[in-house]
């Protein structure tokens, strides 16, 4: 079987990846959100907002976002999905999810524009090695530009329906050096012209 390299890097200008699926931990009896639903996340403006995760099979799940409440029941593998209505850009907001006595909370959520930066060496080229890197990093002070970078991973077939890792990071001097340079400059320009 031919081995393929899989690379998926995400940049949000306020961003969210809209993928659905069950985790490798399906059937777990603990409330869990998909990895991208974590502090500092961004969801796409003007589009319905899916949120998914896992809980005890049959658990009643209640999620709240921007004053809207959504309900679901975890299926036999523990998977659940809720969808919130489309929203205008703004934030920060809080997303909460309850399943029985279990509670999950995601803070500093923005609603904005979502872009997927996908590729190989061109997208992996980090800001820290770009031209004028030190000046660009020092000047990065826009925490509304955020990146969720999925680590490189290889598999002959999907091993899980959640991402293998990653976390949200803001475009500030502490984090931006690790951003994809192409994605960061793209996001910065759109932020300057679109104000979203």
Task: Kindly describe this structure.
By secondary structure, the protein is mainly beta. Helix content is 12%, strand content 37%. It has three helices and eleven strands. Strands 1, 3, 5, 6, 8, 9, 10 and 11 form an eight-stranded mixed beta sheet that branches. It has a three-stranded antiparallel beta sheet with strand order 2-4-7, with no helix packed on it. The chain is globular. The chain starts with 8 loop residues before the first strand and ends with a helix.
- Based on CA inertia axes, which overall geometry fits? globular
The count of helical stretches stands at: 3
**What is the makeup of the main sheet?**
8 strands, mixed
Uncertain parts: 1-28
Could you estimate the helical fraction of the residues in percent? Answer: 10-25%
Give the helices and strands as they follow along the chain.
Answer: EEEEEEEEEHHEEH
Radius of gyration using CA atoms only: 18 Å
Distance between the termini: 44 Å
According to DSSP, the number of beta strands is 11
Q: How much strand content do the residues show?
A: 35-45%
Compute the average pLDDT.
Answer: 87
Structural class: mainly beta
Which features characterize this protein?
single chain; 196 residues; mainly beta; 8-stranded mixed β-sheet; 3-stranded antiparallel β-sheet; 11 strands; globular; disordered N terminus
Secondary structure layout:
Elements: E1 9-13, E2 32-33, E3 42-44, E4 49-54, E5 60-65, E6 68-73, E7 79-84, E8 90-99, E9 102-117, H1 121-124, H2 133-138, E10 142-149, E11 168-171, H3 181-194
